[in-house]
Design a protein that fits this description.
- The chain has helices at 7-57, 60-65, 69-72, 85-104, 106-110, 112-123, 131-145.
- By secondary structure, the chain is mainly alpha-helical.
- The protein has a domain at 93-124.
- α6 runs antiparallel to α7 (131-145).
- The relative contact order is 0.03.
- Pfam families: SLX9.
- Keywords: Nucleus.
């Protein structure tokens, strides 16, 4: 069979194997430590990137500087139709019915100027109400109705 090695040589070989294993495990340990360090660094950089993205998407400062939405939505002015004969006829009919309703109203029949004054006060906003415009309206309507 084979020659057996002396005990000293066998223990030296075992020591050499053991040292190689220890070196291998220390290398593995160092590699794992460096990978975990790199992983933590990448986690930090990813977190920083996410934070920057969130700051980019944060529009609170922008919304503070913009005007309110209610101020932007002003009532739209009605579009003016072309006044052809058909539209003119409709307008004349509508206005004549309105005038007939106003002249038949009991408040207007009792005191037309007061009725016009009350109508203007209720329809015009206070900041647009000017006493001089009332006088002008009374003058126009008064001359129209013979007052």
């Amino acid at each position: 069979m084979g020659k057996s090695r002396p005990r000293e040589e066998a223990s030296a070989r075992a020591n050499h194997k053991f040292e190689k294993k220890v070196q291998f495990y220390t290398k593995v340990k160092d590699t794992v430590a460096s990978l975990s360090a790199q992983k933590s660094i990448t986690k930090k950089t990813k977190a920083q990137r996410r934070k920057k993205k969130l700051q980019a998407y944060d529009l609170s400062r922008l919304s503070e500087s913009l005007p309110e939405l209610n101020a932007l939505h002003q009532p739209k002015k009605p579009t003016e139709l072309k006044l052809n004969s058909k539209n003119r006829q409709k307008l004349v009919l509508k206005e004549s019915k309105q005038l007939q309703a106003v002249t038949n109203h009991p408040a207007f029949q009792s005191n037309p100027l007061e009725a016009i004054f009350q109508h203007l006060q209720s329809t015009l906003p206070p900041d647009e109400w000017v006493h001089g415009s009332f006088v002008l309206v009374v003058f126009i309507f008064g001359s129209f109705f013979g007052y």
